[in-house]
Amino acid sequence: MASFNTHAFAAGPYNAVYGGVTPGLGVMVGAQQAPSLEITPHGQAITNTHVYGRTTIGVIGQGAEAFFNGILMEYTANSLAALWPFGGTNITNGTIPPLGVDWYGVSATLILTAQAATLAATNGPVTVTCAKAYIAPEFMVKYMFGPELREMPVRMQLFPESVALYRFWLNT
User: Fold this and answer.
1) How far, in Å, CA of 83 to CA of 31, rounded?
2) CA–CA distance from 30 to each of 34, 68, 159 (Å)?
3) What is the 3-state secondary structure (H, E, C) of the chain?
4) What 3 state SS string does 42-90 have?
5) How many Å apart are CA 11 and CA 87, to the nearest integer?
6) How far apart are CA 144 and CA 150, in angstroms?
7) For 105-153, how does the pLDDT look when each residue is reduced to its tens digit (9 = 90+)?
8) Which of 57, 36, 31, 33 has the alpha carbon at shortest distance from 46?
9) Which residues pair with residue 128 across a beta bridge?
10) Rounded distance, CA 20 to CA 111, Å?
11) How far, in Å, CA of 151 to CA of 35, rounded?
């Protein structure tokens, strides 16, 4: 008997671990109730030639930027740790982040794992490991105070894993 639905859909929540700790309830949610990863490639267009004028006839690759986007759903020490150096006790005193610190050196691993018995766990990726993640430069950390649930947006820049492995994340 033929199956009505033979498509390989991938949907389902992911649990997050950042720097060895779980940020909190419902992991981190994003635009469609799920975390998101994005890559923005950089390139120099080959244009302004005597034959094709300003028509782009190629692009010279010049790297990329990668980011994680989500929303912290719990207001705990673990979830605020993802906002270092702005999290933890710094929320109460507005501490200026340390100057002259190489953010690559203090970045931490971000691991997203599909929850069991979901289409995401069946069709993957089951685990996404971002070896080097850190709160994105120029991202406005916004602490909400009031009677509603404190949903705190977070944007993390992903650094390449190493010089030898030029990748932002690994799917398994």
Assistant:
1) 19
2) 5, 10, 20
3) CCCCCCCCCCCCCEEEEECCECCCCCCEECCCCCCEEEEEEEEEEECCECCCECCCCEEEEEEEEEEEEEEECCCCHHHHHCCCCCCCCHHHHCCCCCCCCCHHHHCEEEEEEECCCCHHHHHCCCEEEEEEEEECCCCCCCCCCCCCCCCEEEEEEEECCCCCCCCCCEEC
4) EEEEECCECCCECCCCEEEEEEEEEEEEEEECCCCHHHHHCCCCCCCCH
5) 31
6) 6
7) 888 899 999 889 988 888 889 999 999 998 898 888 777 788 887 777 8
8) 57
9) 112, 171
10) 9
11) 14
> pTM for the full model?
0.81
Q: Which long-range contacts (CB under 8 A, 24 or more apart) does 91-98 make?
A: 91/143
Q: What is the pLDDT of residue 38?
A: 92
